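Recall that a protein's primary structure is simply its ordered list of amino acids. Everything else, from secondary elements to tertiary packing, is in principle encoded there. The following example makes that idea concrete.
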Amino acid sequence: MSGRVAGLACLVTGSTGIGAAVSERLVAEGARVLVASRTADHARDLAERLAADGGRAEWMAVDLSEEAGAAAAVAAVVEAFGRLDAVFSVAGGSGRRFGDGPVDALSGDAFDRTIALNLRSQALVGGAATRQMLAQVPRGGGRGSIVLVSSVLATHPVPELFATHAYAAAKGGIDALARAMAATYARHGIRVNVLAPGLTETPMAARAAADEATTAFAAIKQPLVGGFVAPGDVAEAALFLLSDEARAITGQVLAVDGGWSVVAAGAAAAAPT
């Protein structure tokens, strides 16, 4: 590897799927990573695997939807590595278990819990991270880079398959949050960007992957990958945005969606063979 993020102190929230893939790429390119997740077993297993491969990795189990939890995660990175250079915030999940669905059938509790899991957590992590970055001495690439994770569903809904309106609202809120953060902190040398994945091979997408209509849709709507996006594809984009290679980029939403956002759902019928 080329050491594109060599020596950077990174916080990754989320320890499976995309979070795991990003952690692996960061460590492979020389970064030091702390993995923060609700699920201790997942975070521990990932950190141990990264360390076994020769990387520097720590872990903690924490509820990032609570202010104390977000602050503790940032403090743990600083304690372990001396500073915080980069944050990849992907922790979140489906609100279906709370009752997320079309807004005409959506309870206030389902909305609040889905927002807390997906938007509140990223806002609190972003707040704790920026406080730390503002307080520390800049390095070559500025004070730090933050990448939040949204979804293509925030801008390109598919109600026939994904009528989860609280989730869409949370992801749209992440886009807006990141732009506001980017505008506020650019003069301080802190960059904030968003990745918006399409349907991706993650544990959260297991329900979708088991549904014949959804897999058929993915094959049409995400033709660049012929189905679901691989977590590694998202990780490559994250590595770029977190590295100094992207030092002139902030306030952007980058879709890693296999074509979803530009391909019509019926395009397969007219595709060349």
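The chain has eight helices and seven strands. Residues 267-273 have pLDDT under 50 and may be disordered.
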